[in-house]
Design a protein that fits this description.
The chain has 20 helices and 21 strands. The protein is α/β, with parallel strands linked by helices. It has 2 domains: 8-296, Rossmann fold (3-Layer(aba) Sandwich); 301-573, Rossmann fold (3-Layer(aba) Sandwich). The protein is globular, with a radius of gyration of 25 Å.
Amino acid sequence: MCADFPMKYILVTGGVISGIGKGIIASSIGTILKSCGLRVTAIKIDPYINIDAGTFSPYEHGEVFVLNDGGEVDLDLGNYERFLDINLYKDNNITTGKIYQHVINKERHGDYLGKTVQVVPHITDAVQEWVMNQAKVPVDDDKKEPQICVIELGGTIGDIEGMPFIEAFRQFQFKAKRENFCNIHVSLVPQPNATGEQKTKPTQNSVRALRGLGLSPDLIVCRSAKPIEMAVKEKISMFCHVEPEQVIFIHDVSSTYRVPILLEEQGIIKYFKQRLNLPIDDQPSDLLMKWKKMACRYERLLKVCSIALVGKYTKLSDCYASVFKALEHSALAINYKLDLMYIDSTELERSTEAENSVKYHQAWHKLCKADGILVPGGFGIRGTEGKLQAISWARTKKKPFLGVCLGMQLAVVEFARNCLNWEDANSTEFDPDTKNPVVIDMPEHNPGDMGGTMRLGKRRTVFKTENSVLRKLYGDEMFVEERHRHRYEVNPELTHCFEEKGLKFVGHDTEGNRMEIIELENHPYFVGVQFHPEFSSRPMKPSPPYLGLLLAATGTLNAYLQRGCKLSPSDSYSDLSDDSSPEKEFPYSDPS
């Protein structure tokens, strides 16, 4: 382990456009430094005035990512956790709303008595203080203080919302001292179809704007659709006042697993070692080699497994970012390429058939040809009938199925209607007056205040039987701890009716009142979970419920269970050399 040294801060800013990939760049930089034996943490700054991301529509900023402590945060924190294999906290996500709330509370308490409270110095000081305090919070299992803090500033340079944060870091670079502070600027190099020429002017303007605000980039990371030519690199170096080795190129790649490799190949470890005076070797450890092998495996897979994701936010893939990653991790672990088919649940409904029969039949065609079906979490009544149709199809046709949060609740509703003959069975979220409320409001639910009133964060689920597929997938543990985000739950007074017909509630909370896991008897894989296991999935440690779905969808679940679930996903990358066969056989494949 590296010797102790002053905290090093790496600020990642962006220019030209938002959504350029700052989160992946920040995560990849953290991964590289962690592979060098350093302890790394991450902070995401979002300049919006919302206190947190909990009340956003997924179409605004993508999914709401939930942390162990119940924080509802930006999806980029999910990238940090997956890449770095760490557990962050809600204070690792800073918003303008949080900062202003913090300063106003101090003003009301009299902390600034006699002074005029202003953006400078009070807001900027609060930002710096928050960053310095949060950077020290342990995020690894060893509970040791981090040595590197990667900070991503959301938005683009020039946004009025981000100005206080830019000013805060302009001051902070002198407080931290040059050898402990580094700025990485991520910019876009567009290539118009009309000329085919890669243009550097947007990057030049963005860097000029950044310098005008008092920050000079130490590294310029240029994003592009295709690999950038050396002449372009030299031009950016000349006009942006940096050495050629300080210009890094990241073009669009087949998977995000390749990004840390591209950064490492361009000498970023050597640069950080010199620029931040880090006591590390020039070469990364085995961790980055595993990433390289994982990227190679991903690009060489030939066998395909198709999963139908039936949801209501299917127009934007970021709405289900963690679900997609959890499925991808599981597919990669068993040597399959994931074919994820997004199906708008409203298009499965009879009303769509009357309005647009083409959409209706296309949606059903996708569902019918899928190897497995997933119904994720969500809120609101729109599209629920289509989800119920998909669940019914999975149950009756014995298609592998996983329901998450709302997906589990609707699986209970579908079973009540079609197997218990409770035709009006429903959730009180959708029909408060239903005669058969199989899903009900939680006692804690406060509909008058939308923010943070749900059951949030990591909670324990206890298995009440050994005869459970999910228990075996979790390693035959007596309990598991996963993250939750819900306002409704299965009505515990009615569970005996379901169990008599074969729908078993195999997991519940520690008090035994909340139903957490359902499994259907005599079905290849029909599982529902109240928690969100996708938030805990890691590239080399896939989530057990998602792994079970992929195993069932590829016909290898029974063989895997018979062999004692001995597969270690992290080990599955350790023996994969660069020239390995793309069809390296999954250890527990069914011989047939």
